[in-house]
Amino acid sequence: MESGLYNQKGFHHRPLPAQIEFRPAQLDDREAIAKLLSASFHRHLGTDSWLYWLLYLSIQSDLKQRLQRRKSGYDCWIAIADGAIAGVIELELKQDWPRQTAYPYCSNLAVAEAWRRQGLASQLLRQAEQTAQSRGSSQVYLHVLESNYRARSLYTKQGYSLQKRDRTWQAWMTGGSWRLFLSKPL
């Protein structure tokens, strides 16, 4: 029997190697990142669904644009374990109305199924927080769905607190989950 961990659903979790490489994502990484994000956020559709693949192509296209532009304040960090992309997080400067100044915003935190529940998401989050802090930010922000209990637990353990609850028009139309806007002082 292969060594490792199994979660409640029976998925095999590989033990994290002693050395995880964290590096900025490159344009050549976009397909693997898009697959990871699609599997993490849209797996309920099933990989045989045309909608899943449409979302995958959309994610890949958006990611390509972000990686090519490399706007000031944008970073995409990946974690490499055993030669494969095991996790990803994006950090960007956002400016929403009525805010007058841009703020650091984390998004698309995802870890491959085989590497989950071993602290890799926390490490990726710390990488983004350190990047924001190195740029002079004293606070970092993110959204999480109210129904995503595991992510909410992670963010609470990492020191994030609720700023506001909001609902997108898509969620309102479909009866979907509220979004929670969280922040953490750095």
Automatic annotation (TrEMBL):
InterPro entries: Acyl_CoA_acyltransferase (IPR016181), Bact_Acetyltransf (IPR050832), GNAT_dom (IPR000182)
All copies of domain N-acetyltransferase, residue ranges: 20-186
Domain of life according to the entry: Bacteria
Keywords linked to the UniProt accession: Acyltransferase, Transferase
Pfam families: Acetyltransf_1 (PF00583)
Keyword Acyltransferase in annotation: yes
Keyword Acyltransferase: yes
Example of a GO MF term: acyltransferase activity, transferring groups other than amino-acyl groups
Name this polypeptide is given: N-acetyltransferase domain-containing protein
Organism (species): Synechococcus sp. (strain ATCC 27144 / PCC 6301 / SAUG 1402/1) (Anacystis nidulans)
Lineage of source species: Bacteria, Bacillati, Cyanobacteriota, Cyanophyceae, Synechococcales
